[in-house]
Amino acid sequence: MTQQNVKNAKKFTATRKVKYTNIAWPIMMGYVKLLLMLLAIYGELQQTGECLTHRCNNDNELPFYCFGFMASYKECSESLCYIAKIEEKIGDKKIQQYHYDCGKCPSDILDLSPYIRTKETTFLNKFKNLDMSKMQCAECSNSPACNADTYFEKQRFCWEKDVKKWTPTRGRRVCGESCFIGVDANEMGFVQGCGSCLSHLEKCATCNTPYCNDKNILPTIKCNYNIPKTKLYKKKVKKCHPMYTHCYVAKDKFGRVEQNCGLCPSEYKECINCNDKDLCNTEKALKDSTML
Questions:
Q1: Which of the listed residues 141, 155, 168, 235 has the most CB atoms within 10 Å of its CB?
Q2: Residue 92 neighbours by CB distance under 10 Å
Q3: Res. 43 pLDDT band, cuts 50 70 90
């Protein structure tokens, strides 16, 4: 090979290297950019619970999210959320808001002062030791972030009241059955709560919507009303309070007829009770009973 041919061969090789470098470098950089983009997408998928490997979408391994502080999303260790309604009153001022978190409804003392939207020291001090067993609370696990305000508002809470208490209170936990209200005839008071009617209640009704168990769902009876001691012969029809289950008609020692809701007063010797129909306490019914 001549010296000139050697020079030409070297020149041709150098030219090919330059051309190869000019072509390969953009391709290589394109691959690098693609790799970086895939890594970024993978990182985002990891955060959203998505994955890229074969059969990786096993729902048992996906994170579960609940609403947390100020309704932000919070990753939980178990598939259970709760929402509690916080209500506190000091004087004329009242705070009412929801508290969200993972897990079961708490029943211990919690410091919720960082979560309450107020700057008043009296309220903040009170929320530092809040008894959660006295707060209304609902749990859910049917879907992520299920512990929303709308979920709480649809839950079946019942009115609760012991026979010896004057006013009912709102139930603190969701009622899985029905709500009930009944009359304790011995104590002459209402009993309200979650579940079925108790056996000792003389008059009782059940229902299945939030706070449905008030006295308005109890059946009532109408009685003839006449109190001669106060309003002589002012007879009229009276719709009895839901507490009452009977009407009575009596005759006093002066021969005056008394009619009203309830059972016969002990002061009357001539008296009958009835509850077979409205306005059953007629004078005729009293006369008929004395002829038996």
A1: 168
A2: 5
A3: very low
Beta-carbon contacts of residue 211 (< 8 Å; ≥ 6 apart): 157, 158, 159, 170, 179
Q: Is the pLDDT of residue 200 over 60?
A: yes
Q: Is 252 exposed, middle or buried (0-12, 13-18, 19+ CB in 10 A)?
A: middle
Return the HEC string of the chain.
CCHHHHHHHHHHHHHHHHHHHHHHHHHHHHHHHHHHHHHHHHHHHHHHCCCCCCCCCCCCCCCEEEECHHHCEEEECCCCEEEEEEEEEECCEEEEEEEEEECCCCCCEECCHHHCCCCCHHHHHHHCCEEHHHCEEEEECCCCCCCCHHHHHCCCCCEEECCCCCCCEECCECCCCCEEEEEECCCCEEEEEECCCCCCCCEEEEECCCCCCCHHHCCCCEEEEECCCCCCCCCEEEECCCCCCCEEEEECCCCCEEEEECCCCCCCCEEEEECCCCCCCCHHHHHHHHCC
pLDDT score of 150: 92
CA distance 276 to 246: 9
Tell me the pLDDT band of 125, cut-offs 50, 70 and 90: confident
* Position 291 confidence tier, pLDDT thresholds 50, 70, 90: low
User: Does this model's pTM top 0.70?
Assistant: no
Taking only the tens place, the pLDDT of each residue in 226-255 is 988 776 667 799 999 999 989 999 998 888
